[in-house]
Structure formats: structure tokens, C-alpha cells
């Protein structure tokens, strides 16, 4: 019997039925799967056996499966609507899904790394800018515009960061508006404040600058001169 010629004579419906039988169906379940009667299935199988010279329908299904390059399966009919757990398509689908998740995960890691690097560089840039910014006066004693009692007082200036020790500029505009102060200064333990002991005369108006060009010796620990700051006060 010319098997190839017999296969060529099979109809598409007969091929569908033989495929179902080779995958474990019987005539009844094949009929349900295809939506036709069992009688019609048996008629198609009878014709297929003749074309292939097979002694029974299972043998015909095996011949057809061998021709298509698939192995026959005798696991019995599967539940309708349920895929075969050994179907390679499930494996391929799982593999594709895993690849997609892996790719997505890798992309997320890359984006997170880029964001983290940008954040770190940004923070580093901010730290560098902060370090190079000029110190600013945050408070003084006496306060600007205040009135103090005549006599000894502490002239104190406080900055927003530590300063160089032994480097300061209490600047006078004129001798008449600058209090009488002792030489030298006192620095606070946190290195943010300088204090000079001075004396105020009754009825005098005073003006003091903390840094004023060209005298800019209040400096941060990395040598940046503080912003000039002026106060005016009275002794009454």
C-alpha cells in the first residue's frame, strides 16, 4: 500500500479526526470536540483506514502521526477545554513569559541604577555648592536697631557655619561710630560665634560691620569669606 498516496487522499476532516485519535481521543470524544456525530466520525475513520491500508482506526492514526512527525499518545481522552500539561506550547509560553519578566526586571534595575546615580551625583553637587557658599550672619548682640545701656557689653556675631579660628574683621566706618573694644576676640566652642568685649558711651550711635571690603577675614573653614553684615545700635 502506498501510504504517501493514501495520506494525499485524506480529507481535512479525516486528518483532524486522526490527529485527535493520535493525541488520545476516541471516536466519541472526537465527535464532541469537532461538533459532529459519532456516526460521522466512524464514517471518516472507515475511509481513512482504506486510504492508509490500516487494520483499525488507532493504527491509521499512528501512521498519520508518524507521517506528520509526531508520536502517538495513548493517555486517554483529555477533559474538554483543558490543555495537555506536557504540551510544549505551555513550555514555550512559560519561557516567553519568563523572558518578558526578566527583560522588564532588567530594565527596572537599569532605570533604578540611573536614578540612584543621578541622585548621588545631585547630592554630591549640592554638598559641593553648600561648601563653597559664603557664610551668613544669623544673629548679633546687640541686635540691629537696638538700644543698650552705657557701659561694658559683649559685641557678638554668630554665623550659620563654623569659621576659621583667629580670622575676623570687625570693621569701623569711623572712630565716632565704633565702640571702644579690647584687642582680641573670643571664639565659641562650635566655632560659629566671635565675641569682643567693648564699652558703650551714653548718647552715642554706633555702626559695626562684620566683613566689609577690603576687610573680609570672617571666613568659613574652607576659606570662603562671609557675606558683609552691618548693625546699628544706640547707647542711652
Automatic annotation (TrEMBL):
Top-level taxonomic group: Bacteria
HTH luxR-type domain boundaries: 3-68
SMART domains linked to this entry: HTH_LUXR (SM00421)
PANTHER family for this protein: DNA-BINDING TRANSCRIPTIONAL ACTIVATOR DEVR_DOSR
Record keywords: DNA-binding, Membrane, Transcription, Transcription regulation, Transmembrane, Transmembrane helix
Entry's Gene Ontology molecular function annotations: DNA binding
Identification of the protein by name: LuxR C-terminal-related transcriptional regulator
Annotated transmembrane regions: 101-122
GO BP annotations listed: regulation of DNA-templated transcription
A matching Pfam family: GerE
Amino acid at each position: 500500500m502506498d501510504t504517501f498516496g493514501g495520506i494525499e487522499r485524506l480529507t481535512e476532516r479525516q486528518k483532524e479526526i486522526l490527529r485527535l485519535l493520535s493525541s488520545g481521543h476516541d471516536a466519541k470524544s472526537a465527535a464532541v470536540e469537532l461538533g459532529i456525530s459519532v456516526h460521522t466520525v466512524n464514517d471518516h475513520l472507515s475511509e481513512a483506514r482504506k486510504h492508509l491500508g490500516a487494520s483499525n482506526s488507532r493504527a491509521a492514526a499512528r501512521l498519520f502521526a508518524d507521517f506528520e512527525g509526531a508520536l502517538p499518545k495513548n493517555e486517554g481522552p483529555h477533559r474538554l477545554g483543558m490543555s495537555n500539561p506536557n504540551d510544549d506550547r505551555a513550555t514555550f509560553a512559560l519561557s516567553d513569559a519568563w523572558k518578558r519578566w526578566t527583560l522588564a526586571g532588567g530594565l527596572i534595575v537599569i532605570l533604578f541604577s540611573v536614578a540612584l546615580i543621578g541622585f548621588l551625583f545631585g547630592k554630591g553637587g549640592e554638598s559641593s555648592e553648600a561648601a563653597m557658599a559664603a557664610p551668613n550672619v544669623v544673629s548679633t548682640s546687640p541686635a540691629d536697631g537696638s538700644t543698650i545701656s552705657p557701659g561694658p557689653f559683649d559685641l557678638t556675631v554668630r554665623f550659620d557655619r563654623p569659621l576659621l579660628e583667629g580670622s575676623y574683621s570687625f570693621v569701623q566706618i569711623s572712630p565716632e561710630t565704633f565702640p571702644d573694644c579690647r584687642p582680641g576676640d573670643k571664639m565659641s566652642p562650635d566655632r560659629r560665634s566671635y565675641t569682643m568685649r567693648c564699652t558703650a558711651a551714653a548718647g552715642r550711635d554706633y555702626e559695626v560691620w562684620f566683613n566689609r571690603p577690603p576687610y573680609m577675614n570672617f571666613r568659613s573653614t574652607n576659606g570662603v569669606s562671609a557675606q558683609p553684615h552691618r548693625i546699628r545700635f544706640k547707647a542711652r
